Structure formats: C-alpha cells, structure tokens
C-alpha cells in the first residue's frame, strides 16, 4: 500500500515542477576572471608542483531556503595540500539563467574552503568556482525543489560500478570505472520520466572530483551527488549511519518523496529500512540481491530495465 501511494501521481504532485536538467546540461562558454598572481608565493609553488584537486559540493534545498555551497580547493591527488587565503571567483547558470552570472569573489580559509550563500527559485543550477591565481576550477550543482518531488536514489560503488571501491577503500581508477551493463540507461530513463536523481555514496569527500568525472565519462545524468564528509582515511566508519542521516535530511528537511532506491551492500539495505523506505521498492544488485526482503537484480540491469523501469509511471510533474 505504501508503494501504491507513492508511485501513482496525485493531483497535488501533478502540479509540481519537473527537474530542469536541460538547463544545466550544456553550459555556454564562460568569460572568467583575469588571471592575477597568487597572494602567497607558497600557493604559486604549490600550483606549479601539484595538479589541482578542487571540488564543489552539490547542494539540494527546499524552495525558500538558501543553499550554502562549499568549494574545497587543494592540490595533489594523494596529500591534498589545501589552498589557503587565496581568492576564488564564483559563477552560476541554470534555470531562468541561461548565461553565466557572476556571484562574487571569496577567499579560502585555512581548510582551503569557501562558503557561498545562494538563493534561487525552483530549478537546477551549475556553479563554477575559479581560482584567481592559476584559473584552475571546479564545478558543482545546486537543486532547489518543491516538497513532494518524486525521487529515485542510487548508491554508486558496487551498484552502478562493477567494482565496489567503497568497500576496499582503493579509489585508483575510479573516474573511468566500468559500469554495470545498462546501468546508465536505468538512471537516465528515470530522469526522462521526470524523477529527481540522487547519487548517495559513502566515498569520502576528497573523491568527489573523480566521482563527477566518472558520471560524465559514463554519460550519466548530472544528478545530485553526495559524498561522505569524513576525510581521515579511505574507508569512512559507520557508513550505514551516514547514509541514514542524509536520507533523513532528504526526506524530512528537503521534503523529497523517494519512491525507489538502489544499492548493493547491507549498509544500503539498513539505511533504506531505517528511514522507512519499503523493501518492495528497494532494489539490490550483487551478492546481497534479495536479502532481507529486498528486490533482487541479477547479473546486470537489462531485465530490470525492460520490465521494472519500462513499466514505471512518470513522476507526474510539469515540465518547465
């Protein structure tokens, strides 16, 4: 009964706006800031000797709530030396904003971070942050949603990828990892039906750059990506609680209607159950497929795509 209520669009949900993914899919060229010297000579040396490893953490908020977009700037894929006390220029484009708009200039703190407040109407937005000293950059996304938006949520490692990088804490090659056959079609089919797409991964935050590169490499929809803020090692502790907490935020604070979820691990099963998501709409692939009353996906996504996804109703939203 729970699934029937959530899967069939109601008259109220029919008035909600669909995710506006088209507005952020092909950004125009950006005339960014003029390059100027770094404020500190050590920053210049850092940029000469290490590749940039910047990231902008995606945000999703309910309409009427400001988003605080966090940019993290460091260099080096191993040691991640923070870029401190340097200037970053921020731009935004997306729904009702087809061209880039300048947001402002911000200075990194001792953790290499900037915090950018953004208030926008319902829509999807692409945020680009550019370091003034060397013009290196990072991109993230902001989703502003109405309560009740129908959503499909995916774990990544071992769920969309063949390898479970998350379980072993080895992220070498993650940006070009092989996806399960037809996983991309599953995700993109839900987007075409009007569902909000969420990627919830236990990967530590410093793999966010590689995660976004993998999504682009596979041709997946640029949905909301949430990584674990834990940064003290490759395998964050208590993955299940971390996922439970973020699912609670999505359901209670953002007001999403999460109608279907995908995972591969017992931590996924536990987190989904902890927030009351029905087992009948919890799809698990891999060795735990069908465990604890969940719905199994065997081998790859082809049969699932041609049956479950193909018969799924639209999200019942209004295209922008």
TrEMBL record:
<dbReference type="InterPro" id="IPR023214">
    <property type="entry name" value="HAD_sf"/>
</dbReference>
<dbReference type="GO" id="GO:0008526">
    <property type="term" value="F:phosphatidylinositol transfer activity"/>
</dbReference>
<dbReference type="GO" id="GO:0031210">
    <property type="term" value="F:phosphatidylcholine binding"/>
</dbReference>
<keyword id="KW-0445">Lipid transport</keyword>
<dbReference type="GO" id="GO:0008525">
    <property type="term" value="F:phosphatidylcholine transporter activity"/>
</dbReference>
<feature type="domain" description="LNS2/PITP">
    <location>
        <begin position="152"/>
        <end position="294"/>
    </location>
</feature>
<dbReference type="Pfam" id="PF24695">
    <property type="entry name" value="PITM1-3"/>
</dbReference>
<dbReference type="InterPro" id="IPR036412">
    <property type="entry name" value="HAD-like_sf"/>
</dbReference>
<keyword id="KW-0813">Transport</keyword>
<dbReference type="GO" id="GO:0005737">
    <property type="term" value="C:cytoplasm"/>
</dbReference>
<dbReference type="InterPro" id="IPR031315">
    <property type="entry name" value="LNS2/PITP"/>
</dbReference>
<protein>
    <submittedName>
        <fullName>Haloacid dehalogenase</fullName>
    </submittedName>
</protein>
<dbReference type="InterPro" id="IPR001666">
    <property type="entry name" value="PI_transfer"/>
</dbReference>
<dbReference type="Pfam" id="PF24694">
    <property type="entry name" value="LNS2_PITM1-3"/>
</dbReference>
<dbReference type="GO" id="GO:0035091">
    <property type="term" value="F:phosphatidylinositol binding"/>
</dbReference>
């Amino acid at each position: 009964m729970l699934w029937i209520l959530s899967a069939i669009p109601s008259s109220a949900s029919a008035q909600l706006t669909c995710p506006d993914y088209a507005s952020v899919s092909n950004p125009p060229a950006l005339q960014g800031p003029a390059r100027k010297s770094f404020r500190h000579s050590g920053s210049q040396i850092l940029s000469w000797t290490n590749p940039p490893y910047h990231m902008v953490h995606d945000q999703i908020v309910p309409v009427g709530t400001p988003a605080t977009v966090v940019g993290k700037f460091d260099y080096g894929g191993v040691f991640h030396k923070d870029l401190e006390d340097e200037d970053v220029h921020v731009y935004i484009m997306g729904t009702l904003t087809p061209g880039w708009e300048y947001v402002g200039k911000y200075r990194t703190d001792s953790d290499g971070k900037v915090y950018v407040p953004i208030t926008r109407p319902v829509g999807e937005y692409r945020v680009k942050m550019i370091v003034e000293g060397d013009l290196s950059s990072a991109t993230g996304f902001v989703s502003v949603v109405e309560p009740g938006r129908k959503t499909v949520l995916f774990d990544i490692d071992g769920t969309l990828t063949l390898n479970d990088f998350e379980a072993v804490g080895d992220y070498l090659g993650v940006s070009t990892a092989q996806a399960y056959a037809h996983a991309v079609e599953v995700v993109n089919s839900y987007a075409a039906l009007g569902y909000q797409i969420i990627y919830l991964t236990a990967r530590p935050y410093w793999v966010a750059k590689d995660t976004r590169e993998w999504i682009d490499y596979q041709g997946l929809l640029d949905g909301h990506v949430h990584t674990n803020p834990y940064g003290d090692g490759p395998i964050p502790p208590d993955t299940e609680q971390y996922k439970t907490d973020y699912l609670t935020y999505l359901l209670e604070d953002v007001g999403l209607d999460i109608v279907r979820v995908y995972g591969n691990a017992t931590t996924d099963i536990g987190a989904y159950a902890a927030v009351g998501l029905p087992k009948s709409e919890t799809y698990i692939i891999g060795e735990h497929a069908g465990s604890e009353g969940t719905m199994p996906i065997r081998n790859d996504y082809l049969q699932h795509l041609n049956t479950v996804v193909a018969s799924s109703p639209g999200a019942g939203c209004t295209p922008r």
